[in-house]
Amino acid sequence: MDAEKYLKRIAVSAERNLDLEYLKELQSSHMHKIPFENLDVTRKIPIMLDTDAFFEKILERSRGGFCYELNGLFQHLLSELGFQSHLISCTVKKPDGWVREDSHAAILVLLNQIPYLVDVGFGDSVRQPLPLTGEEKTDVSGTYRIRESGEGIYDLQRLEDGKWRILYRFSDKPRQLNDFHDACFFNQTSPESHFTHGDLATIATKNGRVTLSGLTVTKSEAGTKEKYEITEEEKREFLRKQFNIKP
């Protein structure tokens, strides 16, 4: 993989120590530069679990992707840079219950014998490495912590209205990209998948986030939220301007 081209896309220098500050910069910059988006899914363009294909899409064509693509490629970059990392499987919890088991891919990075959760493919979520020690971390998207719920099983939680809500549950067991084959196919094809119901694109901004869901735009900025509708004709220009996507 051309790590130099990847780092240029996310505007991060390669001349850094492999420490927590560098990992934090890599994750934050990635989330500010590369959108989470499902446009290939809604256009029925098959997504194969192949890092060369991810590289061509995300770096050669300046696209985004969903979790397998974003975290799959980012974990590959981390390994190329020298970080000790591996993919993990996660089960997302929605307000109405759990989704398909082990269908979300994220990353664990080991630094100074401490494992950190790193995730650049979950949309509006924590923007920095989160230690599995239970320590709370806060950024513009909220306050987060990880709690162990069983041996080798952990919950990513966000503080909402004074209560901790589980975003997803994960195992620290190393996974390979191919382990997500069935889940990736499900999320591209099943009517039960959130990603098959309409276009979705979202990207972090300095003080908030911009999201397109169908024809609804949501912009959050410093705690305020604006929501409005656009037309199909306007959507093409919006995708190009806000996400650098040319559908």
From TrEMBL:
Q: Which InterPro entries match?
A: Arylamine_N-AcTrfase (IPR001447), Arylamine_NAT_domain_sf (IPR053710), Papain-like_cys_pep_sf (IPR038765)
Q: Name one Pfam family in it.
A: Acetyltransf_2
- Please give the family membership noted in the entry: Belongs to the arylamine N-acetyltransferase family.
Q: Indicate what this protein is called per its UniProt record.
A: Arylamine N-acetyltransferase
Organism of provenance: Cytobacillus oceanisediminis
